[in-house]
Amino acid sequence: QMPGTARHDREMAIQAKRNLSKTTDPVERLRLQCLARGSAGIKGLGRVFRIMDDDNSRTLDFKEFVKGLNDYAMMIDKEEAQEIFRIFDKDGSGTIDFDEFLVTLRPPMSKARKEIIMQAFRKLDKTGDGVITIEDLRGVYNAKHHPKYQNGDWTEDQVFRAFLDNFDSPYDKDGKVTTEEFMNYYAGVSASIDTDVYFIVMMKNAWKL
């Protein structure tokens, strides 16, 4: 696990729960309900939608949307769900594109934060193909310090895999981390950190940038 990440995750979840009682904006409420589950909360909802998207259209109609929210145990009444759906169904087609949905749901980040996240991504993506894999990590991340490697439980590859799983979509772990997944993960972490300066310092320390 990355330095400080678990702690930020907890702080963020607590903060999200606290803010839930204060906000009336339906999109913000949905965002906070996801964040209350930690950094992977938004990704998890995306995963639920993907499972329901039987025809691989990457879109959802209202019925599927509500079913997805229910499957993910989101506390939302029908009126609120309708309101959210309308906001995301920009062209009024009766369907929403769930990539767009997830990007809108992701907590907004400043340009400075996005840049430092991309810097970390590029450092990890040794091959420069836009995806971080175990191969990439061999050159950047030392598995030998990991306690499970030291006590013989895990091989080097298992350490790398566990590391990638932090950033990977929760139920769809393929050992590959895309820019999108990396950004989603840090959008969650970013939500718990008030200032850009602190966020940037944290990223620089964590990734030795």
TrEMBL record:
Q: Which CDD domains match?
A: EFh (cd00051)
Keyword Nucleus found: no
The EF-hand domain is annotated at 40-75, 76-111, 112-147
A molecular function annotated in GO for this UniProt entry is: calcium ion binding
Q: Which InterPro entries match?
A: Ca-bind, EF-hand-dom_pair, EF_Hand_1_Ca_BS, EF_hand_dom
PROSITE patterns in UniProt: EF_HAND_1, EF_HAND_2
* UniProt entry keywords in alphabetical sequence: Calcium, Metal-binding, Repeat
Q: Which PANTHER family does this entry report, sorted A to Z? A: CALCYPHOSIN, CALCYPHOSINE LIKE
According to the UniProt entry, the coiled-coil residues are none
Q: Would you tell me the protein name for this molecule? A: CAPSL protein
